[in-house]
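Exam review. A common question shows you a sequence with its structure tokens and asks you to describe the fold in words. Practice with the pair below. Do the first one on your own.
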Amino acid sequence: MCTVLFFKTIDHHCPFMNNCIAKRNHLFFFLFLLFSTLLFVLVIAVFVLRMVQNPDMTGGILGGAVAIVSLILGCYAGCMLFSHVYLIFAGATTNEIIRGRWDDANPFNLGCCRNCAEFCCRDRGPSIIRQKSQSLGV
């Protein structure tokens, strides 16, 4: 686990990226999910297009294996992408949704449009890594 999980803007620790997803990198994590999903969709679309155009030459076993792996990973990345779209629209973090932080309404929800604008355009703040290294005299 990361040693900086005490910040209030933390979203979650991602075991696949071995990194905390927080205020400074949440947008980049979202873009990673978006482009990964698009890549998997593109690979599957090219495979299906090749099958339709030339059924005798589908890419063999390797092409089929790549298409199946892309389908599985694409479904996973797509589900993650849509869950993060929901989180952005709701103005919440993964931990807040899982733990059910609020009994009533989310106090950080500014409405769908303002939540999206806040997510995309907010100030990322100073780097924590530089502050830690400076305080250690490195």
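Now try the second one, then compare your answer with the model answer below.
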Amino acid sequence: MAKPLKRLKEALFGVSLAEKQRRAEEQKQKAQEELKRKADTLRDHQRDLQGLLEELGTDAINGMTTDAVNERLRKEGRNMLTPPKKSPWWWSLIKHLIHSIPP
């Protein structure tokens, strides 16, 4: 009785519970690895200068080559902050109308 029920659940939900658990564990592991990687980049100021320059593909005297700059721009984009989201015009109108009514 258990096997037909298991097959029915798999047919209805697409994947087995074990598969979902395995995928969740993989995602958790990837998230932990990404967090470790980000933590390592936060420690760049503690590393020795020569090793950091080699990893970044530059030198302290001349800086990056034009080709390296163009490649990094293509791969990572410009070094800009994301502008804050603007609220739509109608939201400002509603706020103005609500706040202009005396209590």
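Model answer, second protein: The chain is about 65% helix and 0% strand. The radius of gyration is 26 Å. Full marks require stating both points clearly.
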